[in-house]
Amino acid sequence: SDRKSAGPTSSFRLTERFILLLVFSAFITLCFGAIFFLPDSSKLLSGVFFHSSAVETNTRTGTVSGSGSANDEKILAKIRKDHEDALTEAKDTLQKRPEEIKQEILKEKEKVLRDSLGPDGGDVDRLPPVEYQRPPGATGQEPPDPRTRERRAKVKEMMQHSWGGYKRYAWGANELRPISKQGHSSNLFGGLKGANIVDALDTLYIMEMYEDFDEATAWVEKNLDFSLNTEVSVFEVNIRFVGGLLSAYYLSGKDVFRRKAVELGERLLPAFKTSTGIPWALLNLKSGIGRNWPWASGGSSILAEYGTLHLEFMHLSKLSGNPEFAQKVMNIRKVLERLDKPHGLYPNYLNPNSGQWGQHHVSVGGLGDSFYEYLLKAWIMSDKTDEEAKKMYYDALQAIETNLIRKSSGGLTYIAEWKGGLLEHKMGHLTCFAGGMIALGADGAPGDQTGHQMELAAEIARTCHESYARTSMTRSTVLSL
Predict the structure, then answer these.
(1) Where in the chain are the domains?
(2) Which of 37, 128, 242, 427 is at 20 to 30 A from 204, Cα to Cα?
């Protein structure tokens, strides 16, 4: 009976509690709604929290009066201001759309990333503006001579044919194997893709193949990625990727090429972290760890590789506003100038840690060739103001002529190789560029050497021509080229 009589009373009390809870919840909701959404809620809040018989707030002047000390008044005024600021921020936040809030979060993350990189942290989106000037005569002109126009058209036709094959069978790959019709990427570039696209950008533009140029540009913008855990050849990546991007920028003015070139250049900078500043031949783009080719004379760096960075790195400094690029390649010259050079010649191998020559092998062909080319072109690129490059080039050419240039019994002029004091009477295929190089530099030759150097250039070019003309071009020879 006790349980029966207690039942209705207990049920009534639960109902009362439920009703009271609803009333209390409604009151809390009403209070918070007033605080956050009423136009004058800041006054309501200040009245609720700060009004008392001991302290009175003047809401118009922002002063506090009452019986408390001056220090207490300052503290209370600060608390009231902080609360009002918090309310304003809360109301603004609640009134924003979710998309706006998301964008603000992304912007804040980007700011934190930029700050973590530091002032020289490689933020290519903050590159300084540069005044772009389109080079005159790059496109839009036809030669007046009909024979020249015919040859020009044939060259463009050959380019269209080869580019069409690359697009069809190997788009995005570094190379096309023409027999198997397969894309291929050599280990010189590791996992880096698109060497053929980047390398051909300037040619596409000069030949006015604008649709193909735009397609290649879109690929660069969307797919050219340098944030890879892969080891690359610093030399090859510089001349193919950095050089290709820079020339495409100077021809077209498209800033995507400048940004990509600077980004890649920044990823190559760790290669210079050696005792002498002579860069490693190989570099991991992600870790920044470098090394040299294991076959290169006891871990040496190669003259043609570390000596063939100057042109691109000088322009990276110009386009990025970062002098470090130029400082790195100028330091290479300083190291070479300090070293004793046998008979004025530059050996092909240099240890980047000890700063000493490796094996005494001198060649104007493979392992040495483009170092000499870049000295001459650095002088020309500077509008012939880079006196250091000029002197180094003509001094080197004089040493080459004295010690390496010989004439065969048949009257052919050639450039031999030098190994530890002994001449090796052979001239490799890569040495044939020297004819053009010597002719290019003849105009600035010291003294009365201009005519002599032009004759020397012509003789070397003739030797190279004869090497082809006298070679039996059988089917097996052609396929092996």
Answers:
(1) 31-97, 155-225
(2) 128
